[in-house]
Amino acid sequence: MGAPKQKWTSEEEAALKAGVTKYGAGKWSTILKDPEFSILLYSRSNVDLKDKWRNMNVAANGWGSRSRVRVTPKSNQQIVKDDDKALITVSQSDTEIVDAQPLAVSNGTPENASSKKSIPRLDNLILEAITNLKEPRGSSRAAIAIYIEERYLAPENLEKLLAATLKLLTENGKLIKVKHQFRIAPPSTHTDVNKGSSPLILEGKQKNSPKVEKNEIKILSKSQIDAELEKMKGMTAQEAAAAAAQAVAEAEAAIAEAEEAAREAEKAEAEAEEAQLFAEAAMKALKCRTVCT
DNA sequence: TTAGGGTTACAG
DNA sequence: CTGTAACCCTAA
């Protein structure tokens, strides 16, 4: 594996994959014209995209014989070999993954006309909920969920997202969890690593993990990612940022789910990671754009 | 503009 | 030296 000149970053790869999944392989110019993709691939030309895609396909094709073992958490190559319209969703055996959504390119008919406005970041929603609830001992997850559900149009998987986000916020030190009650952590500026005191070691890293809440594991599917990307098209920076934030939350939730399940989630893991990579990169890029134009 | 072939640069 | 990945050139 060479690491020669300007090696492609994981973010760029994820963006390329997302673009190909959306527009199809070969529409390099189209992908590059998309604002959200061009942000990430600003330093790449259409030829670069083509070459990279070729390399990735060749790499994936060469390993046809040996059974693919584990996908190392970096630069996962996926088996998207379909052209454009087919969009083969990985058919997993036990847990059905859903949709073979046609997604006939909604150029003329934006289906998101009925979308629920721009969704703020779940992080901020949680903080807002806790703040407004003003419960001295902190708010429980259920209370937060109810607050969000009443004030906003929440997705069905809110529970999952909320659990994952709460966990993350707690781990990052932005929230303090005491007896199932979440409080807003004291301002530690940034670098969540609280230096000295506050031994939250007994945070209960793995308390009762192996308990899948619902047998139904709904992991992000390619089509869902596509749907998000489709929505991101033609959005303003703020809206796109919000969408990207949600994508991050969903990806993280998917990863957490995959890790907890730890079963045969190879595919899901790869997809979730890919989604996370792209979402993170999108957010980063958008942030940079708003700041440094 | 894209697909394909060729060249360069680096890792093993 | 060989394989791979980014880069480069050119025909369609």
Automatic annotation (TrEMBL):
Domain (HTH myb-type): residue spans on this chain: 1-61
Single GO molecular function: double-stranded telomeric DNA binding
Ranges for region Disordered: 187-207
Keyword Transmembrane belongs to the record: no
GO biological process annotation, one example: nucleosome assembly
Keyword Coiled coil: yes
InterPro entries reported in the protein's UniProt record: Histone_H1/H5_H15 (IPR005818), Homeodomain-like_sf (IPR009057), Myb_dom (IPR017930), SANT/Myb (IPR001005), SMH1-6 (IPR044597), WH-like_DNA-bd_sf (IPR036388), WH_DNA-bd_sf (IPR036390)
Major localisation: nucleus
Domain H15: 118-186
Coiled-coil stretches noted in the UniProt entry, renumbered to this chain: 241-285
Bias type Polar residues, positions: 188-197
Keywords: Chromosome, Coiled coil, DNA-binding, Nucleus, Transcription, Transcription regulation
Cellular localization per UniProt: Chromosome; Nucleus, Nucleolus
Highest taxon in the source lineage: Eukaryota
Pfam families, alphabetized: Linker_histone, Myb_DNA-binding
CDD domains linked to this entry: SANT_TRF
Residue intervals of the Myb-like domain: 5-57
GO CC terms: nucleolus; nucleosome
Protein name: MYB transcription factor
